[in-house]
Design goal:
Blueprint lengths: L3 H9 L7 E5 L12 E2 L9 E2 L3 E4 L9 E9 L13 E5 L11 E4 L3 E4 L2 E4 L9 E2 L10 E3 L7 H9 L4 E5 L3 E7 L3 E2 L10 E2 L2 H11 L3 E8 L3 H13 L4 E5 L10 H7 L3 E5 L3 E2 L5 E5 L2 E6 L3 H19 L10 E4 L10 E10 L5 E5 L8 H6 L2 E5 L11 E6 L5
Parallel strand pairs: 5-6, 13-16, 13-17, 14-15, 17-21, 19-23, 22-24
Antiparallel strand pairs: 1-12, 2-11, 3-10, 4-6, 4-7, 5-9, 8-9, 18-20, 20-21, 22-26, 23-24, 23-25, 25-26
Helix pairs in contact: 3-6, 4-5
Length: 402
């Protein structure tokens, strides 16, 4: 068995980001930029009012009350075409272009209007309530660097920069193969000796959450020919990653390793010093990375979080380091053995905003209900000593604290 850190190093060593492609903006969300985004226009493209009120000259309202003649209106998308002169004002609305000749905005709360005459009841300095052209960015500015995942904020910025297409890293294609004579799909007829295939659904969602495309190749039986045919289909799908579920141990019906060998998979490792998830395989089949995940549901999901997520990040040019914040233990943990342990737990914030984590009582690798309750994993190093409440520990968050 090799340590988790070494396994990750072997898995990610030599992995390069995938090629780039241009996509339309409406489908760019959650993609990763492969090139910087440059502003195609200046924003705002003109001096714009930040408030509803009147565009005026500061000198005309230096002493109040001051009576001004309203000569027109400037609205968003429809500017006042003329120029402002002495003692004149233009009714203006938020976002509208500031008329030529005006240098400040008299907000409507500080104005009284009767007909075409507006009276300023408070003075206003030059430049007040005006967003200058280019306040946000100028044409040609670098707005986002390559490697940024396009979150909602980035997507809005790209649109404001007048880009209708953007260059992104191609989505990793991940083929998922569930193995086992005992497995049936949810809702299918089954015998009392069969179980529902759940791993493929959870792993597929991890793929999608990580920016990849999941290709579900279904369930194959426990025989070399069926597993080999599924691997052939995965290659034919031009997969970047092939994930198998189950059959990774050493039992008579655990045939995945033999199928890998028959197809020429170059194994980087087999068996990790971790719990859950010891029977984990990784290697390459042609251009595709191959991950053989355990069949136990919790083991499969934990291994996907620890190994598949970083692999998909590397294929998209994203950082692969996993953040492990420090928390205070609320509970008791026994001395650990030689395997790195990932303890299902619930993290919360106390009244002072400090991170507290409570290990869940049941840790069996078949219990998905416990994993679904957990929002984090306590990461325990090999041979870690026993711990009591208040001791510091490191955690890997699975989902946000709510």
């Amino acid at each position: 068995m090799i340590p988790v850190a070494e396994a990750l190093e072997r898995l990610l060593g030599g992995v390069e980001p995938l090629e780039s492609e241009a996509v339309e903006l409406h489908s760019a969300g959650n993609r990763v930029l492969s090139a910087p985004v440059l502003a195609g226009r200046t924003h705002p493209p003109f001096d714009a009012s930040a408030m509803d009120g009147y565009a005026v000259r500061a000198v005309d309202v230096d002493r109040v009350p001051a009576r001004l003649t309203v000569i027109g209106e400037s609205a968003a998308g429809r500017r006042f075409a003329g120029s402002l002169g002495d003692g004149e004002a233009v009714r203006i609305f938020t976002g509208a272009p500031v008329p030529q000749g005006a240098d400040t905005i008299l907000i409507q709360e500080n104005a009284e209007r009767e007909g075409d005459v507006v009276t300023a009841i408070e003075s206003v300095a030059a430049g007040r309530h005006i967003r200058k052209a280019g306040l946000d960015f100028h044409s040609g500015d670098v707005l986002l660097e390559a490697g940024r995942r396009i979150d909602p904020q980035a997507l809005a910025l790209i649109a404001a920069a007048d880009a209708d297409r953007v260059r992104v890293v191609r989505r990793p294609r991940v083929a998922i193969i569930a193995t086992g004579d005992e497995l049936v799909q949810p809702g299918a007829s089954r015998t009392d000796d069969q179980i529902i295939a759940s791993n493929s659904f959870g792993v597929a969602q991890i793929v999608r959450d990580s920016g990849g495309d999941a290709i579900d190749l279904g369930i194959v039986g426990d025989d070399l020919e069926s597993i080999g045919s599924a691997l052939d289909r995965a290659v034919a799908e031009t997969s970047d990653v092939i994930v198998t579920l189950g059959g990774a141990s050493v039992g008579d019906h655990d045939l995945t390793a033999k199928a890998f060998a028959a197809k020429g998979v170059d194994l980087a490792f087999w068996k990790i010093a971790m719990r859950p998830g010891k029977p984990l395989m990784a290697g390459r089949l042609g251009r595709a990375s191959v991950l053989g995940l355990p069949g136990n549901p919790v083991s499969a999901m934990v291994c996907a979080d620890l190994f598949l997520r970083p692999l998909l990040a590397a294929l998209q040019g994203l950082p692969t380091d996993q953040h492990l914040p420090k928390a205070a233990l609320d509970g008791v943990l026994a001395e650990n053995d030689r395997r790195q342990d990932y303890v299902r737990a619930i993290a919360r914030l106390d009244d002072q905003g400090d991170l507290i984590v409570s290990p869940l009582a049941m840790q069996d690798s078949s219990m998905l209900r416990i994993l679904a309750r957990a929002n984090c994993l306590i990461v325990r190093a090999p041979y870690a000593p026993a711990q009591r409440s208040g001791d510091p520990c490191r955690i890997l968050m699975l989902r946000p604290i709510v």
